[in-house]
Design a protein that fits this description.
alpha/beta; Ubiquitin-like (UB roll); Alpha-Beta Plaits; Rossmann fold; globular
């Protein structure tokens, strides 16, 4: 701001003169100085506006007749505020005491450790002098929801649940019914919670200050509970999607009791149904607890194993025996071996897996689920902007004017990211949704383009044609930061909206309106999902999106950028760590002699193949061709996730040696010769990298069941038996090795990550990381991004008389992969 000073205000707080920036409330100033002012309807967390309706935070202002609610009152110049005057303290105490009158007694409270009881204790109140709520007016228990319980006898009408639902998560399910003392929260049209449109994000449960809304796992049969009744609290990262929400895991007697969101850079305290309630798989009775070896008299390989009764197919073994058998079937076999790693494991485990295949077997036949996910997006990004990661975090939508969401369904696939998209529209942002399927984000959209399946390129080229035709492109940006623009312009001449309307199913006027909205915005972002990438023309789809952003100059500034929403919790980190057949860590080509030499120098081993390895689907083909005969599969389930599961299952059955490392007997494990029991994310230490490029620390909250071990430790022991000299004793050792040849980890150390998340690139040890990149050029020749024209490629299969319908798949909110 050219050196301009931020506006400030000076006032007196409890006898001391203070100067603070304008815009802060009295409560915020007092809290920042360590002063305790009780509060109930105010939640000091991102996204929650103060409401001032409970009157528990009253303070006295000199010269004013009435007390003021400190959570909504801002100080003015010269104001004199007293937080602990007799009058203010007495009023606050009265408010709390009156609220307690309508509460169950503390020994039968739904949450004995609720914020209300904490405030009562701070005011020296353990019971109320006022009459209890009449029995006839106590609302009935609503326990219709599988994960949450509603006990409105504890409700104080603070409205936090309404704000949590309607303003923070923007789900618009909870409202208030009734008036005055008879007001109460309601779900939809007074439906039971379990029958309403509630998506079970649990934001209201975390916000509730009284225990009226509680996780069911905290309550006993009499609806009595205590949120503070846990042995340990561990901060970690959610194990599900690529958003990377930070969580607090509450552990009691060695089991996860409940989970809350904490203020991480991606989620700001928010969670979805999976992150908050989807943890009980950790303690499932079918978890693998001991190594298993296929019996000599086992039936032929197939989907024939009952995970609850596997003894006819497998026998238990010691770790030594299982590792010996696993290693003996792999070592010395070179190109006959291939590996599938996992995007659900840590960065360190992904790094070790690709190192194991390359160092141990001399080739690059290693891959993971990104092949069926965003591999085409990464290919287009590397080709045209020089980097395979997002150019801006999804949080940057807060600074945008317009955003495109195409081929993604974030309300179900990335629910916490979707909260930012929904809030964006509430602030007046224009949201353009493009999807052959209808989806929940439609009701927030300025434009909903429900185009024909497979017609992405025709639609996007028509939009870009309009931008060129109407000269809406950013000529200065194009000249300064891009190349091949003339070829792109010439290519787009044949894609008028009128001509493409017949192809994509969107009328020309809508295509032109979308083009104008995006091109004329001050700041625009593009988000896409696997609806874009999982096509025969997935790379061309991504090229179009990149070209659209480049021609409008919507890259490299706040509120602009390209963001493929990554699927699994660590698919970004696993790809960064080199778990792909054509790249070593940090997307360094296996064909580059200098790159390979840099890694083998660190590894202390000889060179390995300069030939690109086989992909997931190519590996399955190679098994059928007899070229690959043994596999090591860690945390992947190709028998369920492969595009052609029959083909994949036949390949797995044909292997003469299959080692599966997982936490359950998956469909793939049905075909295994050796099964190694591994650990879930909440049982291990390490780092993960989310879709935002944020590197974050995961910590073990509980121990793996039985004899199960952390994945990295299993990998080390297996590698030793295959002749590799590995001596890692902790994931921090692995991270330190990774950082040697990964520039993306510059200024990011294990010790730093123990205290904070860091977005890469980080320019200094103090820099939290760059949310937006490429503001001064691209990591390509001459610093220029490239336009790559995309032609229409017909799909491999089209509807015909025998198969007249098109199947478009997608995830469900509550479901996660295999």
């Amino acid at each position: 701001m050219d050196g301009a000073q931020v506006d400030q205000v000076t006032f007196t707080l409890d006898g001391e003169e203070v100067t603070v920036p304008t815009g802060l409330t009295i409560w915020e100033v007092a809290n920042g100085r360590g002063l305790v002012i009780p509060h109930l309807c105010h939640k000091p967390a991102p996204g929650y506006r103060p409401d001032g309706n409970c009157r528990a935070c009253m303070v006295e202002i000199e010269g004013e007749r009435t007390l003021a609610a400190s959570c909504i009152r801002e100080p003015s110049e010269g104001m004199v505020v007293t937080t602990d005057s007799r009058r203010a303290s007495s009023a606050r105490k009265m408010v709390v005491e009156m609220l307690l009158a309508d509460q169950p007694d503390r020994d039968t409270a739904h949450d004995k450790a609720s914020h209300l009881w904490d405030m009562a204790q701070a005011n020296g109140i353990d019971q109320s002098r006022f009459p209890k709520l009449e029995d006839g007016r106590i609302p009935l228990l609503d326990d219709s929801h599988v994960a949450m319980s509603v006990n409105l006898d504890a409700c104080i009408q603070c409205g936090l649940c309404v704000r949590a639902c309607r303003e923070v998560q923007v789900n618009d399910v909870i409202g208030m019914a009734g008036r005055g003392h008879d007001a109460y929260p309601t779900f939809d049209f007074a439906d039971p919670m379990g029958e309403s449109t509630c998506v079970a994000c649990g934001e209201c449960v975390q916000a509730c200050p009284t225990g009226a809304l509680m996780p069911s796992t905290v309550l006993d049969a009499n609806q009595v509970g205590d949120r503070s009744d846990y042995d340990e609290e561990v901060e970690s990262i959610c194990a599900f999607c690529g958003v990377g929400c930070q969580i607090s895991i509450k552990v009691k007697d060695g089991r996860v009791k409940y989970v809350e969101g904490i203020n991480g850079p991606a989620n700001e305290g928010r969670l979805c149904v999976k992150g908050r309630f989807g943890y009980d798989y950790i303690h499932h009775g079918h978890r693998l607890t001991k190594p298993l070896i296929r019996r000599e008299d086992a039936p032929a390989k197939g989907l024939n194993v009952d995970p609850g009764n596997w003894s006819e197919v497998f026998r238990e073994a010691s770790w030594d025996e299982a590792l010996d058998v696993a290693a003996n079937g792999l070592k010395g076999r070179g190109r006959e071996v291939a590996g599938f790693g996992s995007a659900k494991c840590t960065n360190e485990e992904a790094y070790l897996f690709q190192k194991f295949i390359r160092q141990g077997f001399g080739h690059n036949n290693v891959d993971h689920c990104t092949r069926l996910c965003h591999a085409s997006s990464v290919a287009a990004l590397l080709e045209n902007v020089g980097s395979g990661a997002v150019t801006a975090t999804f949080n940057e939508i807060e600074n945008a004017d317009v955003a495109i969401v195409i081929g993604a369904n974030p309300i179900e696939n990335h629910p916490v990211a979707a909260t930012y998209f929904k809030q964006f529209t509430k602030r007046g942002g224009k949201l353009i949704v493009m999807d052959p399927r209808g989806q929940a984000l439609k009701r927030f959209a300025t434009h909903m383009l429900q185009f024909r399946p497979g017609a992405d390129v025709s639609m996007l080229n028509a939009i870009m044609h309009t931008i060129v035709d109407e000269k809406l492109y950013d000529q200065q940006y194009i000249e300064g930061y891009t190349e091949n623009w003339d070829a792109e312009k010439a290519h787009l001449e044949g894609f008028s909206p009128e001509a493409m309307a017949e192809v994509c199913g969107i009328d020309a006027d809508t295509l032109r309106a979308v083009a104008r909205d995006f091109a004329t915005a001050k700041a625009g972002m593009i988000f896409w999902g696997m609806g874009v990438s999982q096509h025969i023309h997935g790379t061309d789809n991504s090229r179009c999106l990149i070209s659209l952003a480049l021609m409008t100059g919507h890259v490299g500034r706040p509120g602009t950028g390209l963001h493929p929403l990554r699927g699994q919790n660590n698919v970004q980190g696993a790809s960064d760590a080199g778990l792909i057949p054509m790249f070593l860590p940090d997307y360094q080509s296996v064909m580059d002699d200098g790159v390979r030499s840099a890694f083998t120098d660190v590894w202390g081993s000889g060179d390995f193949s300069a030939e690109k390895g086989l992909t997931v689907t190519e590996i399955m083909d190679a098994v059928h061709d007899g070229n690959i005969k043994a596999m090591y599969v860690l945390g992947e389930n190709p028998a369920m996730s492969d595009p052609d599961v029959d083909h994949a299952r036949a390949a797995l059955a044909a292997l003469d040696h299959l080692v599966v490392q997982d936490i359950f007997i998956t469909e793939t494990a049905n075909y295994a010769d050796v099964i190694l029991p591994a650990s879930a994310l909440y049982e291990k230490a390490g780092t993960v990298s989310n879709t935002n490029r944020q590197v974050q620390m995961v910590r073990p909250a509980v121990t793996p069941p039985g004899e199960a071990r952390q994945d990295w430790a299993i990998q080390v022991e297996l590698a030793k038996r295959c002749g590799l000299d590995w001596s890692y004793t902790h994931p921090s050792d692995i991270f330190a090795e990774m950082a040697i040849n990964m520039k993306s980890l510059n200024n990011i150390t294990w010790e730093r990550l123990e205290g904070e998340a860091v977005t890469y690139p980080s320019l200094s040890p103090e820099d939290p990381g760059q949310a937006v990149v490429f503001g001064d050029g691209f990591p390509r020749p001459e610093g220029r991004a490239r336009f790559t024209p995309a032609a229409i490629i017909p799909p491999d299969e089209t509807p015909d008389a025998d198969y007249p319908m098109v199947l478009t798949t997608g995830r469900q909110l509550e479901h996660w992969h295999t």
